[in-house]
Amino acid sequence: MDRDYSARFLDAEAGAATPANAIAPPVGVRLQLDALRYDDDVLLRDLDLTLRPGRITCLLGPSGVGKTSLLKIIAGLLPLPAASSLAASDGRPLTGRIAYMDQQDLLLPWASVHDNLLIGARLRGDAPDRTRADRLLDKVGLAKWRDARPDTLSGGMRQRLALARTLMEDAAVVLMDEPFSALDAITKFHLQALAAGMLEGRTVLLITHDPLEALRLGHDIYVLAGHPARLSRALRPEGVPPRDPATDALKHHYSAIMASLAARGED
């Protein structure tokens, strides 16, 4: 594995301005996996995935290909396989600098909207920042429901709350596992735009099955497919997220992604 990663990784990003809402200078992440196995089955091999600092990276692929496992390895929820490496571009450990947003909102049903935002601080034994929580609720349009319970909210409102709770962690790296997959098309469209704005300046890995979602939000888009699965080259759409999915350029990229998924699914 390449151990000189930190010194080289930020060359292309040198001199870039840090967005106003960034927590600190953006940090890049590189995951190099020799292989990922489930029982005796090799799901993927020779993977080299780079998350550019302050950018949204989208990962597409069929179910069962190992996308969620990669997310959990980066998050520290699964062990790093042998002969593999995980490194941050600043050379520091990633522990304590990652926020994880699951497919399900995982809200505490007995806690109020406001208290759901404070759960991370309380679990760590930190003093909860109630003012910051109120600001985030205002940003996601939930200030009026501050004292409500999650079961009184619509699905879109619950996802907005889950997004606010993820951002409440002030993490430099955000991992998102199909966070909008269960939503209707209109709610998904609005939440994608909200997420693009609120995640600016953070390093994000977003797993999705939806090529249009990836094209709307991603600075870098990868397809993981085949058996064992391998990672495609990065696709980097023009423009700033959230993009208009109706443009000719994105339609062309959509066709290319679908062709890649179909062809590699036959490997």
Explained architecture:
This protein has 267 residues and is α/β, with parallel strands linked by helices. The chain has two domains: 22-97 and 172-267, P-loop containing nucleotide triphosphate hydrolases (Rossmann fold); 109-170. Helix content is 33%, strand content 20%. Helix 8 crosses helix 9 (248-264). Mean pLDDT is 87; it is low at 1-22.
Secondary structure layout:
Elements: H1 5-9, E1 29-38, E2 41-51, E3 56-60, H2 67-75, E4 85-88, E5 98-101, H3 113-117, H4 119-124, H5 130-139, H6 155-168, E6 173-177, H7 185-198, E7 203-207, H8 211-217, E8 220-226, E9 229-231, H9 248-264
Parallel strand pairs: 3-7, 3-8, 5-6, 6-7
Antiparallel strand pairs: 1-2, 1-4, 8-9
Annotation keywords:
alpha/beta; three-stranded antiparallel β-sheet; 20% strand; disordered N terminus; 267 residues; 9 helices; six-stranded mixed β-sheet; 2 domains; Rossmann fold; single chain
Write a brief structural summary:
This protein has 267 residues and is α/β, with parallel strands linked by helices. It is 33% helix and 20% strand.
